[in-house]
Write a structure and sequence with these properties.
Elements (H helix, E strand, L loop, with lengths): L9 H21 L3 H21 L3 H12 L1 H8 L1 H18 L5 H4 L11 H14 L3 E5 L6 H4 L3 E6 L2 H7 L10 E5 L2 E7 L15 H12 L3 E5 L6 E5 L2 E6 L1 H12 L2
Parallel strand pairs: 1-3
Antiparallel strand pairs: 1-5, 2-4, 3-4, 5-6, 6-7
Helix pairs in contact: 2-3, 7-9, 7-11
Length: 260
């Protein structure tokens, strides 16, 4: 404990650090989105309320107090997408890394191998990149993607490079949209994905890149984008996109995420 004009306890320092980290997480989630300006406005109103209260301006204080009293409900409505992303970020980042599961408390720790056919996905993407065939592939991890699959056609077919290449052939009725892969199955095709709300994306990003990035902002899935114009392969994951990766890099990422 530090004594002086202000008494500072250890718990106060922990409190400040936790709030600072929470603010940092929120900032990362809402930066470059319309929600950022709303967030700045809310913070401004809050500090104005504190100032008015300190100056004992009772009428203005009562008005601002009423605004802030209903602010929690308003925040949940306005920031519902950002709250979803924050909960997803916390859940997938920490609980997955720590392998949190009640099953681990009662069963021996056994290393599991994913059913995702990484080599088939890699082969299909390299073929489509070489032929400049546009593709958008979502490979599921922990999140249930059934709600997105319902927007397309459920196939539930065995994953193979030939199936993926045939789906994204420009003459195929299923080529327009995304393919969702769950485990060793091509779960659905022609699926509609949420588009990213980031306003600062490069102008050369087409709808595939924007949809892939939007999907990575809303789920923990790995999204592979093959550009129809350039044939370059990109990866979207955890709200970030990595452009122009090689076939070797793609295979390494797939094996790291799904064969560990």
């Amino acid at each position: 404990m530090i004594n002086g004009f202000i008494t500072i306890r250890v718990i106060d320092i922990i409190d400040i650090l936790l709030v600072a980290y929470l603010m940092y997480v929120v900032y990362n989630l809402i930066k470059d989105t319309p929600a950022f300006n709303i967030f700045v406005g809310i913070i401004t109103i809050y500090f104005l309320y504190r100032l008015v209260k300190a100056l004992n301006m009772q009428l203005l204080e009562s008005i601002l107090g009423q605004v802030i009293s209903v602010g929690v409900i308003a925040l949940m409505i306005v920031f519902q997408q950002e709250i979803r992303r924050m909960l997803l970020y916390l859940g997938t980042r920490y609980f997955k890394q720590s392998n949190f599961s009640l099953e681990h408390l009662f069963t021996p720790k056994v290393k599991k191998t994913s059913d995702v056919k990484t080599k088939s996905i890699h082969k299909a993407c390299t073929i489509m990149a070489r032929e400049k065939t546009g593709a958008l592939i979502v490979v599921a991890k922990n999140n249930n993607l059934s709600s997105y699959a319902e927007s397309g056609d459920v196939l539930n077919a065995e994953t193979s490079s030939r199936i993926l290449v045939s789906i994204f052939n420009k003459y195929s009725p299923l080529h327009d949209g995304a393919v969702i892969i769950c485990g060793d199955k091509v779960y659905a095709a022609r699926c509609v994905l949420p588009v990213s709300e980031n306003f600062n994306l490069p102008p050369h990003y087409g709808m595939r890149h924007r949809a892939g990035l939007g999907m990575s902002e809303n789920t923990d899935a790995l999204i592979i984008i093959v550009s129809e114009e350039t044939g370059k392969i990109s990866i979207a994951e955890q709200g970030e996109i990595k452009e122009a990766i090689s076939g070797k890099e793609l295979l390494e990422i797939l094996e790291k995420d799904f064969e560990s």
